[in-house]
């Protein structure tokens, strides 16, 4: 898999941009290796849904493959088909189906399709009967998340129907899998309960004659902290990008992980204003004294949470500043106090933290959300710039 989408140049020939999300592909590779070390007896399925959590699905998928991810996963079939179109030929799973979905295309592309109920199994079987190759189907059991997945009461019916279709040669059941509700809260009683339901579901599938290649449950927090959940493969997403699933799990560095994305923008204006000057819509910030304001040219259209108005942290000139007043669609302001800056100086919103910049976790706290949302929501107007891509010696 060699195709890369989006910006890849970082040399002096690249035109300057207002803002950029620099994605360190060496960090992605190192994170995948660190996760494989955590689950040494399991394969690794790198989750690259939602454009690789905002980092760019194709470059991150390539990096994950290079570091030994034998599987990729996406939510939608369209995301999986896009990876095939970019040249990926390895094992791949997608799970978020609705009636009338592209079953035939996914099956033809040798993508494992997840089935959580009878309607989905019927659509997969129908796609094969109308001229497809046998489908690779993974059955998903809801072990307690209460979201996608077959209810335990319906499991035997689904398993029986899948086994019958398998016996006919229409499909192969390649996996049985599930997803945790609270793996990011170590010790939560639902974790052991879900594991018990999963083991029963796997046993029931085997009694019905199924012999899945892979059984899997572990998302990032479970990959990091719960070896008994690793089964045949682990399925981390956020940790691939070097972000911790939750403060309770720990800091990325505790696990040898490094945040891959650095979000920065070039200051677009610097000006002196008197005391008592209102700043941004609604004048929710009023300068406490004569001061210098700097304009940071990214806003909620770029994924900067408006909920971080008055609280989001930004590194300017080596110091942490705070968003002054409201985050607007395209811009926000920071108060530099007694300091100044030049137009064109870099404002770093978040990164790995080792240059003193805030992290995605800091923004999550400021906006009352999780770091997953901070990185994933960065908008398409912000170019992704890839560094340490293929050929870089790790
Ligand atoms: C998003 C997702 C994952 C990855 O979760 P992380 O917490 O990012 O590791 C795994 N499995 C399913 C079903 C998901 O939706």
Automatic annotation (TrEMBL):
GO molecular-function annotation terms? alanine racemase activity; hydrolase activity
Q: What class of enzyme is it?
A: isomerase
According to the lineage, what is the superkingdom? Bacteria
Gene3D superfamilies noted in UniProt: Alanine racemase (3.20.20.10), Lyase, Ornithine Decarboxylase, Chain A, domain 1 (2.40.37.10)
Transmembrane portions of the chain: none
Q: Does the keyword Zinc apply?
A: no
**InterPro entries recorded for this chain?**
Ala_racemase, Ala_racemase/Decarboxylase_C, Ala_racemase_C, Ala_racemase_N, Ala_racemase_pyridoxalP-BS, PLP-binding_barrel
The UniProt keyword set, sorted, is: Hydrolase, Isomerase, Pyridoxal phosphate
List the catalytic activities from the record.
L-alanine = D-alanine
Function comment? Catalyzes the interconversion of L-alanine and D-alanine. May also act on other amino acids.
Similarity section? Belongs to the alanine racemase family.
- What is the recorded name of this protein? Alanine racemase
